[in-house]
Design goal:
The protein is mainly beta. The chain has one helix and 19 strands. A seven-stranded parallel β-sheet has the order 3-5-7-9-12-13-16, with no helix packed on it.
Length: 255
């Protein structure tokens, strides 16, 4: 199906489905079926992609400002060097209940984005700004059977400060080198997760499970270790002193 805006075809060719150096405002693509599109160096502002099928969407060096992707299918998407955050009004894009399975965000700014209840199994968010995002009850899980359930995500080298992960299942997922400062980790499963080299300072962590997590070289602060089960958690020796200080111990160097 050719991609059109009323009165014009915006593709270089129907086969390539490539759009370059264009600016779109208030685009209405609700319920559109357009797979395999690529936008390069474009701006999309105030546009509605809700309930659209945009599987395989690629966005490269684009500005996507105040756009609605709620309930959209964007499986296998790839976004690189893009900004999804409108700074003037401090507003992100809406991915509520969107299907983002196997989608990649590389070197993007997705701050203040709403990913509540989105499907994000096998998602990659790498080297991004993601401050103030809402991932509450986002689904990182693939259910194979009643007894076989596993999660997959790579949330690496990313600033998640002030983000909300309440109620998510991230067992054995990779969050290494990310900033988890003032994040909400209420009822989050991080069992066996890779948390190496993170800055781990959650603001809320009631019901957090970190059994056997790899926290080597992580900067852990503001956490009452008496409130969590640290069984099997991997750390380096130098990390023991700060954790003991959280319990009130005064640590002196060996003589």
């Amino acid at each position: 199906m050719p991609l059109t805006i009323p009165g014009e075809n915006i593709l270089d060719t129907t086969e390539s489905k490539l759009i370059r150096n264009r600016k779109f405002i208030d685009l209405d693509w609700q319920h559109e079926f357009q797979q395999g599109l690529t936008f390069k160096d474009c701006t999309l502002s105030g546009s509605d992609f809700s309930n659209a099928n945009l599987d395989g969407l690629r966005l490269e060096n684009c500005n996507i400002l105040d756009c609605d992707f709620s309930n959209a299918n964007i499986q296998d998407g790839f976004f690189e060097g893009c900004t999804f955050y409108e700074k003037e009004h401090q507003k992100g894009c809406d991915f509520y209940r969107a299907d983002l399975r196997r989608t990649e965000f590389q070197r993007c700014d997705i701050s203040m984005g709403n990913f509540t209840r989105s499907e994000v199994f096998d998602i990659t968010i790498n080297d991004c700004q993601a401050q103030g995002c809402n991932f509450e009850h986002a689904d990182f899980v693939n259910v194979v059977s009643r007894t076989v359930v596993f999660s997959s995500a790579r949330l690496t080298k990313t600033n998640f400060k002030y983000s909300d992960f309440e109620g998510v299942y991230l067992e054995k997922c990779d969050l290494s080198e990310s900033k988890l400062v003032s994040v909400i980790l209420t009822r989050v499963n991080l069992e066996g997760a890779k948390l190496a080299n993170t800055i781990f300072a959650p603001s809320q962590y009631e019901g957090l499970s970190i059994f056997k997590a790899d926290m080597r070289n992580a900067e852990i602060s503001g956490v009452d270790i008496r409130a969590l089960d640290f069984s099997g958690v991997k750390i380096f020796e130098w990390q023991m002193a700060p954790l003991l200080e959280e319990l009130g111990f005064v640590i002196h160097p060996d003589n």
